[in-house]
């Protein structure tokens, strides 16, 4: 997988249905431990609420959810479905319900929990995490600007430049553009120098 979607930031959203108040929180998380910590944090914060329903979905891990006392299938699973439908991973969502005295029925609960989770996700925003390849080009000073332009042309960014007898340019390229950048550098220099791959990472952007 060269790209996946995550929440951009923690967020909060509120939804009211027949006097019941639903407070949704979305958190970017990397691990189950982090997700569980966020759930515990919300349970403590809203300890006086009737329900603190939750779900989390990890790219390299499980998807879990809890109805926390609501009728089975009316809260955690519909919340989880929001993130699955949007293709968002590494996310934890907690929806707190303060009961307003009017029963919503199973359909009403599903709609309310779904809407609150979606509103919280919309408030968080979504970022694409892409695979980036780090490369280094050691070349004469006369090629510096041409290498920088070649990097920009492939959607890359120059991370750093070291000045010595020659100049060493460290560049980050989107995973699917790294090969084209390497080919362009070889072409520019007629094979006199190359873009050498140093490693890769996943970054939101």
Describe the structure.
The protein is α+β, with helices and mostly antiparallel strands and 205 residues long. It is 32% helix and 39% strand. It has five helices and ten strands. The chain has helices at 32-45, 76-86, 105-124, 144-153, 178-188; strands at 3-7, 11-17, 20-28, 51-57, 63-66, 91-98, 126-139, 157-163, 167-174, 195-204. Strands 1, 7, 8, 9 and 10 form a five-stranded antiparallel beta sheet that branches. A five-stranded antiparallel beta sheet has the order 2-3-6-4-5, sandwiched between helices. α4 runs antiparallel to α5 (178-188). It is rod-shaped and about 75 Å long. It starts with a strand and ends with a strand. The relative contact order is 0.18.
Mean pLDDT: 93
What is the straight-line distance between the termini?
Answer: 16 Å
| Unreliable segments of 5+ consecutive residues | none
Largest sheet: 5 strands, antiparallel
Secondary-structure element order, as H and E?
A: EEEHEEHEHEHEEHE
Proportion of helical residues? 25-40%
Quick take:
With about 200 residues, this protein is an alpha+beta fold. About 30% of the residues lie in helices and about 40% in strands.
């Amino acid at each position: 997988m060269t790209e996946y979607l995550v929440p951009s930031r923690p967020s909060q959203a509120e939804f009211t249905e027949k006097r019941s108040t639903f407070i949704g929180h979305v958190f970017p998380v990397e691990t189950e431990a982090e997700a569980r910590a966020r759930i515990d944090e919300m349970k403590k914060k809203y300890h006086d609420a009737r329900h603190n329903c939750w779900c989390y979905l990890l790219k390299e891990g499980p998807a879990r959810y809890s109805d926390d006392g609501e009728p089975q299938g009316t809260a955690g699973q519909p919340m989880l479905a929001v993130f699955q439908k949007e293709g968002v991973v590494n996310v934890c969502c907690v929806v707190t319900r303060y009961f307003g005295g009017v029963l919503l029925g199973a359909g009403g609960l599903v709609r309310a929990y779904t809407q609150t989770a979606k509103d919280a996700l919309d408030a968080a925003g979504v970022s694409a995490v892409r695979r980036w390849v780090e490369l280094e080009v050691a070349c004469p000073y006369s090629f510096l600007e041409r290498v920088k332009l070649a990097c920009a042309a492939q959607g890359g960014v120059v991370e750093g430049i070291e000045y010595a007898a020659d100049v060493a340019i460290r560049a980050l390229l989107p995973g699917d553009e790294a090969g084209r950048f390497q080919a362009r550098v070889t072409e520019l220099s007629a094979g006199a120098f190359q873009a050498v791959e140093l490693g890769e990472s996943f970054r939101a952007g």
